[in-house]
Here is the input.
Amino acid sequence: MRRFERINDVVEPVEEYKPGGYHPVHLGDVFQERYEIVGKWSYGQFSTVWHAWDYTLERDVTLKILKATALEKSKELSTFTQLSQAKNHPGKKHVLSLLDHFKHNGPNGSHPCLVFPSMLSDGQVMTAHRMARSVMFMRNISKQIILGLEFLHETDFIHSDLHAANILFNTTQTEYRDLLMPPKFSPVCWLPGIEADSSAPEYLMVSQRPFGFLHDADGSCLTVKIGDLGGAFQSNDKDSRPVTPFGMKAPELFDGRPLDNKIDIWALGCLLFQFATNEPLFPVMRFGCTEEECRQMLRDLVTQIVGSGYVGFAVHLGERLKSDFDGEHTEQFAQFLWPMLQQNPQDRPSASELLKHPFLHC
Here is the structure.
């Protein structure tokens, strides 16, 4: 039963503020007598993510507050713990690290809370701006993402949720608070006849990630990290199910073949195509479609775009790249992406092999 009036802004579903759901958060709230909420980063199916100020260490941090039902289900904390104990690797700094964690009791239950370094922007914001991407930008961010992926794979983790919003960007700029977009509040209104309680906040907030701030960077001044390990699992964990976004799912996710970290390599190819062109590689429109209709739509797109062979794919890519990519660079980039998009997972390269590709060393 609905309890609230509909909210049309891009915010988390208000009906998920209920026992077991999201924790109600307002600007100025303080957690652990240490972390003050100063802005909104984003939300996901299982959490809201906030920009906070750490009074103890006097620094900006990100506070991720999971739903109360995630307390028993989430493996994210154990994943971060295992990764923190892993050997040093050049890619370790390109995977988001955990600074602190605690549980917070609220009206909807006990919520796992994770504290991370603040990252100024994410790939979803970057691609929404539709700025032309330079060769240098793509080379630099590709190398950092693949280094992070190599670290995950060498520690036997499959990320399974590589998409633009989970790629985080930062720069040497430290005054994060001054760069936040102005807050936009969406009042939470209870429906007539529903008794209001403390399960929901007074308002929801649109993301305050700065729009356009890093979009003209050449990539050399950016630090790139892979974030959101909530869907990550180890290769011997047979009970885990990948949470890969539909349009980035590798073919083997639909036909019952054994899964390995090559599902991340397919998603990486889709992701880098999107960063370079500001368009999804396989734009599946799921609204109003059955699951089988969506699957068939994706199969048709894969056949059309990559099933016709390298030449057809290179033309498809070249038509969508911006002017900074001349013929030689377009060819190099197409040759870089093409192996990631092989329909047989055994034909896809590993992250380590991708790091040796000439495109990253021109």
Summary: The chain has a mean pLDDT of 91. DSSP finds ten helices and 13 strands in the chain. Residues 340 and 349 are 7 Å apart (CA to CA).
